[in-house]
Design a protein that fits this description.
single chain; 625 residues; Na+/H+ antiporter like fold; Rossmann fold; 2 domains; 5-stranded antiparallel beta sheet; transport
Length: 625
């Protein structure tokens, strides 16, 4: 039996990885292949039977997995970020949550004859969307920047809020079901332990992190271990208080001043991907096909309430007084897929509620899965066409993601911003990030090829990637990652010089992309020129002052970078003439600047050629208001 459990855990890991890869390759939410895998192996073939294989271990596995998922979600709930992302996001995660919860609760009560307490629990479970289903959908639909930002941040912020809401409702049901306890007293005790233990543990762990009392290599492991200890300890002090404690602990750490949780969050997200994937296969395999079919027209009617009443009502109420158009609101009204968190939390609660004999508990899981399947499948298939009908798709993505935020990329980004081009910088160096923020340049702190970046980095309006960092080991990773996202012809890098060591040689497919701004332009060359006082200059080329004259004026020392032509952004490299009527952005060395200052007129001779790498059909995107 032990060998069977070991083999099944290994199989779950392999299947989880495969399903995540399928989702990434097909640009689909990973929840779809995970769901199909679980249904095929469980109800379909009968090969995977979690209750039989894991027995008494199944509940602890699901319980600890959900605790990690809720803690990781709570770490993303920074109250400052809610305000930073606009009135609409703030309203959606507050007023919108209440409206959606109320509509689904009423629909569940009348359509499925649930008790009010169970209807409230189900409504709380399915108010959440989540970045794991929203981000892949946005990548394929590509709506306007503002709409993509609203949907992404709603999914990120509402996850812990919805989970906290569901935990509180569940605690009330669990306490009220015990005839030997006084409901108010037991609920107060649970809230006191859950909230108190969560706040105290969050504060103490925050102090440890802020004062660097742990070596760096132990930080992630220590936080995970302490979180699990808090979960178990809270449950020992007061039954069912653990989930509330870890959720509050995560929220406290996310909002505590002076506590850097970036590394911890990235580690937790990596762990959560594996946990979520394996859990979802297990949970789908436990799904009773007969129970799902028994929901009948009532279940489909409830799905209609979720999609056609609750969501539109929430969007239109929250959108009052905002700048959103009718098309924007109708698009937002249609896109709200439910995710894996709802499935994981509902399955855990269902096991506990069935154990204490709560009526309707056996229908919670199939009903949640019906909502997940319905919203993800229907909206994934129709959102793109609906966006085109409403006219809310983004224009051709001309924005640039620049990996590296040192002096030269910051200066280039600032110039491009002034010309209405969407620019996003990303860097692992906090000093560079801080200086970019001081220049009001959008920036992401961390590895742009990470799971955290995929869920949190705003890529709306971004169509190409420029790799201009000094991190030679990380540059190829970022290059190949975004080649898979945008295509190989949309990712460019600087030539960082010859690599003599055979063990450090790079592939030809990577090296051929290292020609940004010219074969002889490297990161070290640009950094050296900027350190000596070089500046980024924007010049209009006309019939009276063409590219040849421009180069002669600066004694052939200027480095042409990018030019803008009729709303198109084009990157320069190689040898092809730059036409007149464009706005040329170039780097002028300090010696050439002095030469220009001493010159009384423009030279009228001289020729230099360059190549343009760009998509001819792309248009410059407007700067966000």
């Amino acid at each position: 039996m032990l060998e069977q459990i070991t083999a099944m855990l290994a199989l779950l890991g392999v299947l989880s990885l495969f399903c995540q890869w399928i989702g990434w390759k097909l640009r689909l939410p990973a929840i779809l292949p995970l769901l199909l895998c679980g249904l095929l192996l469980g109800p379909g073939l009968g090969f995977l039977q979690p209750d039989v294989i894991f027995g008494d271990l199944l509940f602890p596995i699901i319980s600890l997995g959900v605790a990690v998922i809720l803690f990781e979600g709570a770490l993303t709930l920074n109250f400052k970020e809610i305000k930073e992302h606009g009135v609409m996001v703030t309203r959606l995660v507050t007023l919108g949550t209440v409206i959606t919860w109320a509509c689904i609760t009423v629909g569940t009560f009348y359509l499925l004859d649930f008790e009010w307490s169970m209807a409230l629990l189900f409504g709380a479970l399915v108010v959440v969307t989540g970045p794991t289903v929203i981000v892949p959908m946005l990548r394929s639909v590509r709506p306007k920047t503002e709409l993509a930002s609203i949907l992404r941040w709603e999914g990120i912020v509402i996850d812990p809020i919805g989970a906290l809401l569901a935990v509180l409702v569940f605690e009330y049901i669990a306490v009220a079901a015990d005839p030997t306890t006084h409901v108010l007293h037991a609920l107060s005790a649970m809230l006191a332990v859950g909230l108190g233990f969560g706040v105290i543990s969050g504060y103490l762990v925050g102090l440890v992190l802020r004062n660097n009392l742990l070596p760096h290599y132990l930080r992630n492991t220590a936080v995970l271990t302490l979180m699990l200890a808090v979960f178990v300890g809270s449950n020992l002090l007061q039954e069912e208080a653990g989930l509330l404690s870890v959720t509050v602990m995560g929220i406290w750490l996310a909002n505590m001043k002076g506590v850097d949780i970036a590394d911890i969050l990235e580690f937790k997200e990596t762990l959560t991907v594996l946990l979520i994937s394996a859990l979802f296969i297990l949970l789908a395999a436990r799904l009773n096909a007969d129970a799902l079919l028994s929901l009948g027209w009532e279940g489909l009617a409830l799905l209609a309430v979720v999609m056609l009443i609750a969501r539109p009502l929430s969007i239109w109420c929250c959108g009052i007084g905002t700048s959103l158009s009718k098309g924007d609101k109708w698009f937002l009204s249609w896109v709200a897929p439910r995710g894996i968190v709802a499935a994981a939390v509902s399955s855990l609660f269902a096991i506990k509620l069935e154990a204490i004999g709560i009526k309707g508990a056996e229908l919670i899981v199939p009903l949640v899965f019906l909502i997940i399947i319905g919203t993800v499948v229907i909206q994934s298939l129709t959102a793109g066409r609906w966006a085109k009908v409403l006219g809310v798709t983004a224009d051709s993505s001309q924005g640039l993601l620049i990996f590296g935020a040192s002096k030269f990329p910051r200066a280039l980004a600032k110039t491009l911003q002034s010309k209405g081009v969407t620019v996003l910088l990303a860097d692992n160096n906090w000093d560079n990030v801080r200086l970019a923020r001081m220049d009001s340049i959008p920036v992401y702190f961390g590895n742009p090829a990470s799971e955290h970046a995929e869920n949190h980095m705003n890529m709306a309006g971004i169509g190409r990637v420029l790799v201009m960092s000094p991190y030679r080991q990380l540059n190829p990773l970022v290059t190949f990652y975004f080649q898979d996202v945008f295509g190989s012809k949309k990712v460019f890098g600087l030539n960082n010089g010859e690599i003599s060591s055979a063990r450090h040689q790079l592939s030809e497919s990577y090296l051929e992309r290292l020609s940004l701004f010219g074969d002889d332009v490297s990161y070290s060359k640009l950094a050296s020129l900027m350190a000596k006082g070089a500046t980024i200059k924007s010049t209009r080329l006309t019939e009276n002052f063409n590219y040849a004259m421009f180069m002669k004026q600066y004694a052939e020392a200027a480095i042409p970078l990018i030019y803008l032509q009729e709303g198109k952004v084009r990157l320069i490299s190689g040898e092809l003439e730059i036409p007149i009527g464009v706005e040329l952005i170039s780097l002028i060395p300090v010696d050439a600047i002095k030469l220009d200052c001493n010159s009384d007129n423009h030279p009228d001779t001289g020729e230099t050629s360059s190549t343009v790498i760009a998509d001819e059909n792309l248009a410059v995107s407007k700067a966000p208001e």
